[in-house]
Amino acid sequence: MNWFVQNSSLISNIGVLFAAVGAILVGIGSHFAGKELHLLVAKNAELSEEYASYVVGRNSYLAISPRLNIGSPVAEIRHFGNYPVRNIILEVFDVSDQIPEIASGAKPDIESYRGKRIFVREGFYSLPQGGRVLSNFPFPDQTDSELHTFEISIYCESGEFLETLQLEFIDNNWEFSWVLHRVDPSRLKGELLSQLHSSGFPSDAPGRLSNNGKFNIAKPP
Asked: Could you tell me which residues come within 8 angstroms of residue 213 by beta carbon, excluding any fewer than 6 positions away?
C-alpha cells in the first residue's frame, strides 16, 4: 500500500499544522506592516506639524531693541522662539508728547497717535539667530536729551504685537526700556511677553516704563 495512503491521517495533521503556522506568519506580517504604516503616518503628521510651525512661525515673535552705538543707537531685531517670523509689517509712532498726561494717570490715546507714524517697514523677516539691524530706524542722536517714547505695532504670520520703547540720553549714556505685549482685541494690549531695561534707566520715575510692563504714575503731593 502506498505510504501516503497509509499515513493520510498524519499528512492531514501536518497540513493543518502548516496551515496554522502560515496563518500565524501572515498575521505576524500583517501586524508588522500595520505597525510600520502607523509609524509612517505618525512621522508624516509630525513633519506636517513641523512644516506648519516653520511657515507660520509658531510661538515666535520679535522686538526692536536699541543697540548702543557712538552717536545715534541702531535698531536691533531681538528674536524669540525657534522658528522664522515672516511677512513682518512694522509701524512706529512717536507718542512722546503723551507722557506727561500718562504720568498723571491718563490712559494712552491710541487713536491720536495713529496720525503720528514716523516709520514703516514691510515684507521683511526675522530668523531665530537674531541680531539683524533694521536700517533707518528714527532713533534720536546724542544731541537730543529728551525722553523719547515710541509705540511699535508689529504684524506678522505669528500674530499681532505691540511694543512700547523709551529712550533717553542720560549722563553721556543711552538708557532705554521696552516692553512687548501680544495684542488681544478684548484688551488694550494683552499678554506681556518680554521686556528689557538698561541698568541706568530710571524705571521708578513718573512716565517711565517700570518692571511690571506699565508706565509709572506720579504720586499725588
From this structure: 179, 181, 192, 195
**The domain spanning residue 126 has which CATH number?**
2.60.40
10 Å CB burial of residue 39 (0-12, 13-18, 19+) is: exposed
- Region 7-30 average pLDDT: 45
Are 44 and 70 in a shared domain? no
> Which residues, at least 6 apart from 56, have a Cβ–Cβ distance to it below 8 Å?
83, 157, 158
**Which of 1-5, 66-70, 119-123, 132-136 is predicted least confidently?**
1-5
* Count of domains for the chain: 2
- Domain with 27 in it: 3-56
